[in-house]
């Protein structure tokens, strides 16, 4: 055996001028590296003490795992999960070394020279770029007004500074057109805010305590990857894990049961389960009386009754002790829940009874007919869920709510958790997405300007369509940051038209992404290890300092640097050009957390485990959970969860389904977060490097589609090419398409996805999409 | 004193995230196309199932690579780790053909073969192998193979039949696999 320590004696000398790789000493299999004169040089491994280490966090829309960067002589060598953090990062986090030094890194500002989409640019200086931007902003305001400027930001970087600075910059200019709603979870917001009074509240700290976990339309093995160990722990403790999804996903492979369902029918299933829970009295009477608005009285006009119309919190209930109507928060009352507890001739009823009426029509046979979930399964699901305590529904911004009436899907899940008294208890409740903002208040980095014009926004799923059709007004200048509009917005071909139509499109990004191909000006921005920032967002349970580990590649600048330079040109420089620490301190003011503390490591601002709505205390003005949602009623929708057939489905549009009979659902992959990481060479090597389309053998056979061969999903909006995976792991009549592939890789499934706006939450309806699939000729 | 190091893969908790594979790649800076640790994926339609086995070199008792290597590049350390002297490799790929587990990987650019050395240098410094350290679910473990085998009795024959793995009698690999279906 070769004696490694003999070689190690000379490693200090060897380090000088030799290639180094990230390890601890000389390798017994000393690598070769070809030098400039073509002579191979031996490679030397680094000891841990040779590195400088810095911390940052993955900043796109995932779980914001803390990362440690290992830097040697100014170069980022490797990334590891931070040892003192509660979860370990995934392969995407580690692959960020390759992101920083990616061959498609944008290194200088680039001005378009070819046609939009061609990807031909010439480098220009920052001064020229800023001049151009200033001129275009001034021209746009002069010719179109502030509404002629559009700002698109999203989930590509969710740190606490950059997107906020972007929004504030345009507000300081007087305002701009913005996107309304979000692609990921507007429906959850529209359900969760009125029902429990808080968004981004999650149960991830107590997953392991659960006895029954219902993953509904989502796949935590991929989308909550770092925390999936908690699910396994729960199972080891005896919990039952059930997955409801049209696709047998990675979580289903670990689950005790997979319940396959027709996309878009989840609310029918929820109502069917609610009916059983009500019929069999499996609900938690005490919880409903004490902590919810199920007992509020509703009059014959279906309006919630109040003691004083001007007092929004003065909901009336019927006290069974005094047999009179009183305020819901009167002391010592026992409010009536069911009709049986109300006076026989009462002209009012309770919210609980409205839910009963709505769910009564959903008997097992009807649920089975609508959802394709066998009646016996529906019955068992309802009984198991209601009788296993604590039971958790994992919502996690599910694909089920990314449908035309997704708000009712999300709300139906809250109904189930509330009816069974599971909310506010360890191991129970609804696990949404969540971060420190449910625990403490984080301020914006800078104060809002005094006067901002009110400009109607564009629903996010309609950005392409509305810009092309100049709704509600023409857009002359479009600033895109932290968002891959081309791969993520639905109806890609319409988005391409929009990008071509807008005269001046600025894209600030790290890499030559799909969107940059359609830019007029590309601005190079820093990655997470190249600037200082703060993560105190909606996805991380920890406040984290993002340290600068290496100098930016090329002339890349932080987004906030760009806005500071522009602000100087428009006369409000001092608001934006302070040192970054100033803005971090602004964010942290009042939290008791300091930058100095954060330099030592991430801070969880509350004691673990975090349990939102602990002991049934909700964040609504009444501190009670509300089933009856007046916001929906104001929009002329049912105030109680109701099932509505999605339009783009075989039942909802039989004629369209003649042409496009297959329902397409979108799938998230372990290789990317949306389109971030999508072209990292390490990811392509370790994970998948080609898109898949999952199709049932029966659907494949009639179309001559063969496993492993190319197929094309298409509809009137566009086409998406992918390798066919012919499998019974997808429901018959449904195909699963991959999200996040770049245009340079053939394009994402957004080419075919529906751009309909989810009706109650202004969100995405990508999973209400019809396609057909053909084998590639 | 460690007689023989080995790996343990608990398939019950593995959900195929491939972080171990990336950690290995990142740690060893292996060239494009050279993955020392790979995650084998199994999908079943009837009944539906998915399973994953993370595997690199199994540091066999009877290393076939060592047996066939004409350049004498392989050796077995006292702790059982099979290491390669990369300088000596002539790129003949005999080891790849001989290894039942496809552990050695050929890099056509360099014209040589390399493989997992169980992060021997890290072990020498008191660190864990990077793959083991990186696993988000803790399903990948390593240690003295006798200890690992004591903790989990693994019937390799049954696993080999189910997942179509090579017969362990060829090289006597030092790996414990806990199959996915077992609720031990």
TrEMBL record, chain A:
PROSITE patterns: MOLYBDOPTERIN_PROK_2 (PS00490)
InterPro entries listed in its UniProt record: Asp_de-COase-like_dom_sf, MoPterin_dinucl-bd_dom, Mopterin_OxRdtase, Mopterin_OxRdtase_prok_CS, Prok_Mopterin_Oxidored
Residue span, Molybdopterin oxidoreductase domain: 105-569
GO molecular function, one term: metal ion binding
Cofactor(s) listed in the protein's UniProt record: Mo-bis(molybdopterin guanine dinucleotide)
Domain Molybdopterin dinucleotide-binding: 665-761
Keyword set includes Iron-sulfur: yes
Keywords: Iron, Iron-sulfur, Metal-binding, Molybdenum, Oxidoreductase
Family recorded in the similarity comment: Belongs to the prokaryotic molybdopterin-containing oxidoreductase family.
Name the UniProt record assigns to this protein: DMSO reductase
Classification of source organism: Bacteria, Pseudomonadati, Pseudomonadota, Gammaproteobacteria, Enterobacterales
């Amino acid at each position: 055996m070769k004696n490694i320590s003999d070689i190690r004696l000379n490693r200090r000398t060897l380090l000088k001028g030799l290639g180094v790789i990230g390890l601890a000493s000389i390798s017994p299999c000393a690598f070769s590296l070809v030098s400039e004169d073509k002579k191979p040089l031996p490679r030397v491994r680094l000891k841990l003490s040779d590195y400088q280490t810095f911390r940052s966090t993955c900043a796109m829309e995932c779980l914001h795992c803390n990362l440690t960067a290992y830097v040697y002589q100014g170069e980022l060598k490797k990334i590891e999960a931070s040892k003192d953090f509660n979860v370990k990062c995934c392969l995407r986090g580690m692959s960020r070394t390759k992101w920083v030094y990616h061959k498609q890194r944008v290194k200088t500002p680039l001005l378009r020279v070819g046609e939009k989409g061609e990807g031909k640019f010439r480098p220009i200086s920052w001064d020229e770029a800023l001049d151009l931007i200033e001129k275009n902003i001034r021209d746009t305001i002069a010719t179109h007004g502030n509404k002629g400027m559009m700002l698109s930001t999203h989930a590509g970087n969710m740190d606490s500074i950059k997107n906020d600075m972007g929004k504030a910059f345009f507000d300081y200019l007087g305002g701009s057109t913005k996107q309304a709603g979000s692609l990921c979870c507007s429906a959850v917001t529209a359900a969760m805010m009125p029902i429990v009074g808080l968004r981004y509240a999650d149960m991830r700290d107590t997953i392991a305590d659960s006895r029954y976990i219902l993953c509904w339309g989502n796949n935590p093995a991929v989308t909550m990857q770092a925390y999936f160990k908690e699910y396994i722990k729960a199972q080891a403790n005896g919990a039952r894990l059930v997955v409801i999804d049209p696709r047998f996903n990675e979580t289903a492979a670990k689950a005790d049961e997979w319940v396959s369902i027709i996309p878009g029918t989840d609310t029918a299933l929820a109502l069917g389960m609610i009916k059983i829970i009500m019929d069999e009295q499996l609900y938690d009477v005490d919880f409903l009386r004490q902590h919810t608005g199920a007992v509020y009285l509703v009059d014959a006009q279906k309006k919630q009754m109040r003691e004083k119309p001007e007092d929004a919190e003065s909901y009336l209930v019927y006290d069974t002790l005094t047999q009179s109507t009183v305020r819901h928060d009167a002391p010592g009352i026992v409010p009536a829940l069911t009709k049986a507890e109300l006076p026989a001739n009462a002209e009012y009823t309770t919210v609980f009874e409205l839910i009963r009426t709505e769910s009564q029509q959903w008997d097992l046979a009807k649920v089975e007919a609508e959802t394709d979930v066998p009646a016996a399964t529906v019955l068992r699901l309802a009984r198991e869920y209601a009788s296993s305590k604590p039971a958790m529904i994992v919502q996690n911004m599910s694909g089920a709510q990314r449908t035309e009436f997704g708000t009712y899907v999300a709300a139906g899940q809250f109904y189930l958790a509330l009816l069974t008294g599971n909310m506010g208890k360890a191991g129970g409740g609804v696990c949404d997405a969540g971060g420190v903002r449910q625990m403490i208040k984080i301020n914006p980095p800078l104060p809002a300007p005094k006067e901002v014009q009110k400009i109607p926004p564009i629903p996010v799923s309609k950005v392409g369509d509305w810009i092309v059709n100049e709704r509600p007004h023409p857009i002359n200048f479009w600033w895109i940051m932290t968002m891959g509009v081309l791969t993520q917005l639905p109806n890609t071909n319409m988005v391409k038209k929009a990008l071509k139509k807008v005269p001046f499109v600025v894209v600030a990004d790290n890499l030559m992404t799909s969107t940059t191909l359609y830019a007029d000006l590309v601005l190079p921005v820093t990655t997470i290890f190249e600037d200082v920032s703060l993560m105190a967002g909606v996805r991380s349970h920890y406040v984290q300092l993002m340290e600068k580990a290496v100098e930016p590649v090329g002339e890349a600048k932080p987004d906030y640097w760009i806005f500071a330079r522009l602000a100087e040109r428009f006369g409000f420089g001092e608001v934006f050009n302070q040192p970054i620490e100033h803005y971090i301190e602004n964010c942290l003011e009042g939290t008791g957390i300091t930058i100095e503390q954060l330099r030592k490591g991430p801070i969880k601002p509350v004691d673990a485990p975090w349990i939102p709505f602990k002991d049934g205390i909700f964040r609504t003005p009444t501190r009670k959970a509300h089933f009856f949602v007046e916001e929906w009623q104001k929009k002329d929708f049912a105030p109680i969860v109701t099932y509505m057939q999605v339009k783009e489905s075989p039942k909802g549009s039989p004629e369209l389904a003649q042409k496009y009979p297959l329902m397409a659902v979108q799938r998230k992959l372990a290789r990317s977060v949306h389109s971030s990481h999508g072209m990292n060479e390490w990811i392509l090597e370790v994970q998948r490097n080609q898109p898949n389309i999952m199709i049932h053998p029966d659907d494949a056979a009639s179309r001559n589609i063969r496993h492993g061969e190319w197929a094309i999903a298409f509809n009137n909006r566009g086409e998406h090419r992918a390798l066919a995976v012919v499998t019974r792991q997808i429901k018959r009549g449904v195909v699963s398409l991959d999200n996040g592939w770049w245009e340079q890789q053939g394009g994402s499934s957004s080419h075919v996805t529906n751009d309909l706006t989810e009706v109650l939450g202004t969100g995405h309806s990508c999973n209400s999409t019809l396609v057909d699939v053909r084998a590639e000729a | 004193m460690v007689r023989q190091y080995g790996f343990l893969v608990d398939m019950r908790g593995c959900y195929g995230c491939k972080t171990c594979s990336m950690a290995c790649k990142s740690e060893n800076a292996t060239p494009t196309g050279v993955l020392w640790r790979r995650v084998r994926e199994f999908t079943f339609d009837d009944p539906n199932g998915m399973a994953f086995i993370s595997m690199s070199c199994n540091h066999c008792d009877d290393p076939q690579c060592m047996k066939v290597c004409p350049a004498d590049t392989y050796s077995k350390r006292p702790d059982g780790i099979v290491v390669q002297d990369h300088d000596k490799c002539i790129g003949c790929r005999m080891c790849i053909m001989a290894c039942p587990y496809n552990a050695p990987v050929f890099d056509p650019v360099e014209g040589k073969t390399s493989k997992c050395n169980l992060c021997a240098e890290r072990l020498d410094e008191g660190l864990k192998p990077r793959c083991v350290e990186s696993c988000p679910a803790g399903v990948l473990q390593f240690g003295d193979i006798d200890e690992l085998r004591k903790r989990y009795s693994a019937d390799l024959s049954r696993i080999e039949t189910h997942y179509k793995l090579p017969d362990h009698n060829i090289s006597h690999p030092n790996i414990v696999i806990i199959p996915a279906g077992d609720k031990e």
